[in-house]
Structure formats: structure tokens, C-alpha cells
Amino acid sequence: MVQNIMIACGVAWILQLTALNYGPLMVNHPRFALWQPFTYMWLHDPNSIFHLLSNMLGLYMFGGALERVWGSQRFLRFYLVCGVFAGFLIAAWDWITGGPSSTLGASGAVYGVLMAYGLTWPNRTIMLLFPPIPLRAIYLIPLLFLLQLGMGDRVSHVGHLGGVIAALFLMRQDVGRFLSLDTLRYRWHRYRMRGRLRAVRRDEWGRRRDDDQDGPTLH
């Protein structure tokens, strides 16, 4: 299913490069139509292939693992709900703030997938590309929102947030387990144990350094 979604988005992007008028398919204000929260998520900026590639890379990296666990049908339902909810939230926000605007892209649905991955495997370590640092999966979404603060007004923060909200609602049982008292107690105990382990390692390193300063033993 991940592969099929990627192919559909790629074909739609190629069609956008033609004379096809895709304006009515985006989430538009004030020219809003009920189909737009569904159709906008298959379109990407025809002037920048990076928009398409970044979304498809996130979908490929994290969506495949979820599909193998959930199955294709459940994954597709989850992906569509996150994207459509994000589309309606974008339309509602545009109506509240006023002014003409248009939004396209699969980021809302992809952010829902990223949130689901973080809730399913919160302790998995992810090596980011930019910046190249290791990060636990549960902290991926907060970091991405932080990095977006400097990306300008063209980034749909509301759409990304909509995908995350939909994912949190659909996975509310996983959220409840993650925030349960037993889980929080376990994480606090693990954090304290790691602190003690680091202290032991520092003491051991200090003793080794002192022994080295005393000079080698001669036989």
C-alpha cells in the first residue's frame, strides 16, 4: 500500500506538470469544496520536486514498518483519515483567519504516520539526515515542529498538526498506555539507573586515569 500511495502521488505530480488545472483540487479559501480535503493530499508543488520527495521519503521510511504490522487495509484507512482530517482543519483555519489561500501536499497524512511510528516504537533510535543526529522515535514529531519554525509561511503547520491530532485520536489506547502511571514510573526508574551507570563509568574512568599517571609497572 505504501508503494501504491507513492506511485499515485508521483503520477499526480507528473500530471500537474501538464496544462491540467489542479486548482479546484487543492484546499482553497474562499473557493472551498467538500472533495478538496481528500484530493489535496495527492498533489505536490510542481515547481519543486523536493516537496514530493521529502513526503515520499518519510512515508517510505516509516509507513512500511506500520503496514507490515497493521496490514494494508488498516494502514490505508489510517493514512486517509489523517490526511482528510488535516485538510478539514486547514480549511477551518483559513476560514477563521480569512484571506485567499491554497494548500496541497501529503504532509498531514505523513505526519500522522510519523506520530503512529513514534507511539508504536517510541524507543527506537532514528538517525536523522538533517541534522545527522540519533534520536528516539517518540521525539521525532516535536523536533520536526521545532525545525519548521524557521521555514517560512509556505509550510502548513496547521496541516501537520491536524495529521498528528488525528493520529493521536486513532491511537488513543497507545497514548493512554504511554502516559500510564506504570509506564511513567518505569521510565523514571530507567532514567535513574542510567544516571547511576554513568556515574560508575566516570569513577572507573577516573581510577584508570590515575593509574596511568602513576607510570607503567616495570618487570
Would you mind describing this structure in some detail?
This protein has helices at 2-16, 36-39, 49-70, 72-97, 107-120, 140-148, 157-170, 172-178, 181-213, and strands spanning 27-29, 101-103, 125-127, 134-136. The mean pLDDT is 84. Helices cover 66% and strands 5% of the residues. The chain starts with a helix and ends in a 6-residue tail after the last helix. With 219 residues, it is mainly alpha-helical. The protein is elongated, with a radius of gyration of 23 Å. It contains 9 helices and 4 strands. α1 (2-16) runs antiparallel to α3, α4 (72-97) crosses α5 and α4 (72-97) packs across α7. A hairpin with a 6-residue loop joins β3 (125-127) and β4. The strands form 2 sheets. It has a two-stranded antiparallel sheet with strand order 1-2. Strands 3-4 form a two-stranded antiparallel ribbon. It folds into 2 domains: 2-170, Rhomboid-like (Rhomboid-like fold, Up-down Bundle), CATH 1.20.1540.10; 180-208.
